[in-house]
Amino acid sequence: MYSQNGIPILVIIVEPLIALAVLTVTIASFRKYFQRRRQASLMISLSFLAFFFAIVASTIGKLYQFFASLDLTLYDPVVMMILVTFLFCVFGSYFIFAFINEIFLNANQLYTIFLAIISGGIIGWIIPQVTMDISVNDILIDVSVVVFVFVFLICLTLIILCMKEARRSEEKLPKVGYWFITFYGIFIIFIFVFFVISIIIGTLTQTSFSIFYYLGWVCVFLGTFSGYLGYNMPSRLRKLLKIS
Question: Which letter does DSSP use for residue 127 in this model?
């Protein structure tokens, strides 16, 4: 496959397409929010927006390295933008928790403030590391682990609470909705799982991008789309599932 400056052409094609798909879901979600004006709707829409910006940041890094003439022994725009991607993943996870707080925790402000402090600490730690200098590689693993644990714990909370409500509910509409939102959390976790697998394969085979890298970004779209369907339950989906 054709590549330039270590970036395969397929990456340049796939990431913008996924970003466009996620943007479409995000716009549809914000339209629902402006119709309903519910806080939970705003929070889940903001989480979609954050993950959209995450993939945009990743795409910018790949495009810059693909087209620019850089000394790759000194500069690494891809890793720099991966750190920016992680920043938006932290924002996205915070808004997922804010959504959880609205739906399941009676909008307890103490929970929101507590998580805002943790999120702010992680973001404040990452921002000074965002540089194009090759030395940024030294901090990447540490940042990856911290962000993954943060995202995992929040998404696991979403999964557990939604599964519990789905099993408890006797009505088909909320049951199906909760299951779709459960898949939102699952797909977000699998983004990182697939990226880790891709890194391991790349280390063993000396290749930069495996099929699991692309699957990771596909999970961004599948996750946001599942979350949108679960919370908003469009009329077409209700008809398809024969839900009144």
Answer: G
Single out the residue of 92, 116, 112, 114 nearest to residue 102, CA to CA.
Answer: 112
Phi, psi at residue 8, to the nearest 5°? Answer: -65, 150
Which CATH architecture does the domain made up of 3-237 adopt?
A: Up-down Bundle (1.20)
Backbone angles phi, psi at 3, to 5 degrees: -140, 160
- Segments making up each domain of the chain, as ranges: 3-237
Strand (E) or helix (H) holding 8? strand 7-8
Cross-strand pairs, 8: 3
**45 contacts 29 by C-beta, under 8 angstroms:** yes
| pLDDT confidence tier of residue 141, bands split at 50, 70 and 90 | confident
- Number of neighbouring beta carbons within 10 Å of residue 3: 14
Tokens of 210: 């495996």
* Residues 173 and 233: beta-carbon distance below 8 Å: yes
Rounded distance between C-alpha atoms, residue 230 and residue 183, angstroms: 9
pLDDT tens readout for residues 88-140: 999 999 999 999 999 888 777 888 888 889 999 999 998 887 776 666 667 77
Between CA 229 and CA 196 the distance in angstroms is 28
CA 64/CA 51 separation, integer angstroms: 20
Would the pLDDT of 230 be above 80? yes
Instruction: Name the residue among 222, 166, 165, 226 with its Cα closest to residue 190.
Output: 222
pLDDT score, position 196: 81
